[in-house]
Amino acid sequence: MTQTCEALSRGRLTSYPEGVEQEGGPMRSILAAILFLVLLSYSDGPRAAEADLEVVLAADVSRSIDDAEFELQRKGYAAALTDPRVMTAIQARTNAVVGVCFIEWSGEEDQQVVVDWTEIRDEEDAGSVAAAILAAPRSFMGRTSISAAIDFAMTRFAASKWQAKRRVIDVSGDGTNNSGRAVTEARDEAVAHGVTINGLAIINDRPNLGYSAHTQPPGGLPLYYRQNVIGGPSAFLIVVQDFNSFADAMANKLAKEIDVAGAGSGVQVSALGWQGDRPRR
Question: Of 86, 122, 149, 255, which is most buried, counting CB atoms within 10 Å of its CB?
Fold first, then answer.
């Protein structure tokens, strides 16, 4: 059963335990594509009665994201979960079930479970999670600690009832890590524990005053995410050009990337092109 708005805030960890927007909305298309990529990348698991793939959806709600942008992001996640492409990907799995946890994060001490681990097997399950996401208030509006978000996501894996072998963290954000420990340390520890971290880099070309260096780092945010955030087997990055709209060309490109993702686990995908080299680690 869906558990909502569990207030779980924590400090920095340095080691881990064992263990709807209207149809055609831009964030819906991007986020549904991400979920579809994740699900297809892990479609060869053995038959089981419960989830053998766990996905933590980690949404940035730091202060560089204003209220309007927050609403677009939140509604995009909710819509994506019920998108027919995501349902098709789930039902194509051997056991037709995926475990999903939705968290929001901001500064080093600011992480919260919005929807705790829930099995998604069908439209009813997905709709329940989507409704819970939409009903919850915004969790934070502080600094940006991607590293603490990754650390917190790792604790959620430890709390999962399934203890699946395949675990994925999807990090969405519009800026660099400016709070907590180095993001590369958190990423490398997570990858060492067998977790894949995928990224959704949101280009914010009209940031609030004082945030331009944070949202537009040297080389651009996509490069920052590639070098510092994503990692693990079949890790990929999706680049969102703004919070408001996505051109037809972007939608076509995402459709092509979904096809590429089904070709094999050694393909790294991004919205700026793909390369069939070894997985990013």
Answer: 149
268 — pLDDT class (breaks 50, 70, 90): very low
Contact by Cβ (8 Å): 6, 116: yes
Report the C-alpha gap between 40 and 59 in whole angstroms. Answer: 22
Domains annotated for the chain, with CATH where assigned, are: 27-275 (3.40.50.410)
- For residue 113, which phi and psi values (nearest 5 degrees)? -80, 120
3-state per-residue secondary structure call for 148-214: HHHHHHHHHHHHCCCCCCEEEEEEEECCCCCCCCCHHHHHHHHHHCCEEEEEEEECCCCCCCCCHHH
Q: Residue 171 contacts by C-beta under 8 Å, 6 or more apart in sequence? A: 58, 60, 146, 149, 150, 197, 198, 199, 200, 229, 230
Residue type, 31: L
Amino acid sitting at position 237: L
- pLDDT 10s digits, 148-193: 999 999 999 999 988 777 888 989 888 999 999 999 999 999 999 9
Plot region of 202 (φ>0 → left; ψ -120 to 50 → alpha; else → beta): beta
Name residue, tokens 């990529």. 37
**Residue whose tokens read 């920095």:** 12
* Residue 56 exposed, middle or buried by CB count within 10 Å (0-12, 13-18, 19+): buried
